Amino acid sequence: MSSFTIAKTILGGIYNQTLLASNSKLDKSTDYGHHNVGLSLAPNSSSGYDMCVGATPGCISNCIFSSGMGKFSTVQAARIWRTRWLVEDPDSFMMALVMSIVRAEAEAKRLGLKLAVRPNVFSDVKWEEKRIPMTSELMDWLDSYHIHPDKTNWPTIITLFPLIQFYDYTKLHSHDREIWEHNGHGNDGNYNLTFSASAENHEYNRRVIEYAVDYGYRIAMVATQDVSSNQLRDMWERPVIDGDQHDLRFLDEEEVLVRLKPKGFGKRDTTGFVFTPDSKWTPPRK
Ligand code: SF4
After folding, report:
1. Residue 191 gets which letter from DSSP?
2. For residue 202, how far is its CA from the centre of ligand 1 (angstroms)?
3. pTM of the predicted model as reported, rounded to 2 decimal places
4. How many domains does the chain have?
């Protein structure tokens, strides 16, 4: 069976034609003119494969993977299954993802909205490196949607759909992400990244955030309600915005701190991941 047939069969049989779904936060995007969908994989090593190599001990403990709909074992199992599919048969998975994006775009058009895709809802995969195999079956299928990629140069989802806005949060250093290097240290293309800080004294986290501070990138951080935004603004020396209003980070200015509320296990954090009035961690300075 070809990768294309596997992709079509699995999508049709299990996933109701799409790997992409919304959630309560992504749903808020409608008010901002976007139909927002994401790919939910299984974080860290919960599937047996590490999908978050930049994760810190605190973010692993607080990961919202198992809160909300993730409380249900069937939902967790589906995320694990998708992750194994991506790692064990990437060709058919990438084709299924392409089909899902085309379907989501059609839905966005039907709703009169722009499409925004977050491919890492619970993962930190470098999508700029994941190539889509251009087999003749997939080319013919894309042709029927008036999409004509270069067969000799396998695209990524980012390059195959240049008019769709992709975005993610990442804990990976820029040197590990081709997208930052190719954009010349910028968020100019259609894949927009926000650095995700943990309020832990963790060496890798510190280096990643130092980079974001040096180059003026957006940083997201979870802080408790009793930390005032003025305190965060003075600490970080940058404007603070409420990141829970919506998830469309690419609409935000670059050099801001995106403040997020603790959710799930984060409400009872003991690791230092969530910033509190007692946190000893201080952000790096330019
Ligand atoms: S990097 Fe993100 S998705 Fe991965 S374990 Fe940490 S919080 Fe969860």
Report:
1. E
2. 15
3. 0.93
4. 1
Which tokens is 199 given?
């309020």
Q: What are phi and psi of 121, to 5 degrees?
A: -75, -40
Distance of alpha carbon 40 from the chain centroid: 9
| Ligand 1: centre distance to CA 22 (Å) | 18
Residue 105 to residues 158, 208, 224: CA-CA distances in angstroms? 14, 33, 36
Residue at 273 is within a domain? no
Measured in Å, residue 262 CA sits from the centre of ligand 1 at 14
* Ligand 1 center to 266 CA (angstroms): 12
Per-residue pLDDT reduced to its tens digit, 30-55: 999 999 999 999 999 999 999 999 88
Is residue 199 in some structural domain? yes
Q: Tell me: the pLDDT tens digits for 173-221?
A: 766 676 665 565 667 789 999 999 988 877 878 888 888 888 888 999 9
Ligand 1: distance of its center to the CA of 41 in Å? 11
pLDDT < 50 regions, the chain? none
| Pocket test residue of 23, 65, 82, 222 for ligand 1, highest count of atoms within 8 A of CB | 65
By residue range, what is the domain housing residue 158? Answer: 3-268
Protein residue with its CA nearest to atom 1 in ligand 1: 55
Q: Would residue 218 count as lying in a domain?
A: yes
Instruction: Show the tokens assigned to 172.
Output: 């990976």
Domain assignment of residue 283, yes or no: no
Secondary structure of residue 243 in the 3-state scheme: coil
Lining ligand 1 with CB less than 6 A are 43-44, 52, 55, 59-60, 63, 122-124, 171
Where helices occur in 175-236 by DSSP H, the ranges are 178-182, 203-215, 229-236
The closest of 76, 63, 101 to 266, measured between CA atoms, is 63
Ligand 1 atom at shortest distance from the alpha carbon of 171: 1
Eight-state DSSP code of residue 186: S
